[in-house]
Amino acid sequence: MPKLATSLPATVSARTLTAVTGVEVPVPDPENLIHLQFRRFAGCPVCNLHLRSIVLRRNEIAAVGIREVVVFHSSATELRTYVADVPLDLIADPTRTLYREFGVESSPRALLDPRVWPTIVRAVAADLRAVRRHEKRLLRGRPENGRLGLPADFLIAPDGRVLAAKHGAHADDQWSVDEVLAHAARVEGGVR
């Protein structure tokens, strides 16, 4: 499959992914838009900060017919260790099969780009506060499958068309909730 960001409109072939909770997730979803997010590794402080923003507004997101599906390049066991309490469909992809299919890359620029540094500081501080409150586990020194993944976002229609896509340039370069909602609002007729 070609890199979707440069070949829109593209179509995603139907498949069923299995979330770390065991829930089967159809992609595309016949009744909802899918916001397919590619994140980095389980326990990634920047990813955790971003996911908190999604979780805080998940009712607003669902109300406009969007299902959040979040892919990590960690194993299901590792993912459950860090984000078992996140009420989203979390997909483990330790072999990076989906990453390759969607053209999602790894790069040293994920962490070296100065635009990500303020977010890294905020994210690590938030994670340390949560560890001190015994709300989460301390991130181990070397994450499974590395730290250098780049984020990506795709909005997928029920018929499989990719309506919008973004390949991040650094670890904190992903759609905000407002951007996801704006992309969905542009869908003619909407999906409910």
Question: What features would you describe in this structure?
Answer:
The chain has a 5-stranded mixed sheet. A two-stranded antiparallel ribbon has the order 1-2. Helix 1 packs across helix 6 (117-132). The protein has 192 residues and is of the alpha/beta class. It has 7 helices and 7 strands, in the order E-E-E-H-H-E-H-E-H-H-H-E-E-H. Mean pLDDT is 82; it is low at 1-9. The chain starts with 14 loop residues before the first strand and ends in a 7-residue tail after the last helix. It has one domain (4-184): Glutaredoxin, CATH 3.40.30.10. Helices cover 31% and strands 19% of the residues.
Question: In summary, what is this structure?
Answer:
By secondary structure, this protein is α/β, with parallel strands linked by helices. It has helices at residues 45-56, 58-63, 76-83, 97-101, 109-112, 117-132, 177-185; strands at residues 15-18, 24-27, 33-38, 66-72, 89-92, 152-156, 162-167. It starts with 14 loop residues before the first strand and ends in a 7-residue tail after the last helix.
Tally of alpha and pi helices: 7
Largest sheet: 5 strands, mixed
- Would you state the CATH class? Alpha Beta
CATH structural architecture: 3-Layer(aba) Sandwich
Q: Got a strand count?
A: 7
Q: What is the quaternary state of this protein?
A: single chain
* Percent of residues in helices: 25-40%
Return the average pLDDT rounded to an integer.
82
Uncertain spans: 1-9
Based on Cα principal axes, name the global outline: globular
Domain count: the total is 1
Radius of gyration: 16 Å
- CATH topology annotation: Glutaredoxin
In percent terms, what proportion of residues is strand?
15-25%
According to CATH, the homologous superfamily is Glutaredoxin
Taken in chain order, the helices and strands follow as EEEHHEHEHHHEEH
Q: How widely separated are the two ends?
A: 29 Å
Structural class: alpha/beta
Spatial arrangement of strands, main beta sheet? 5-4-3-6-7
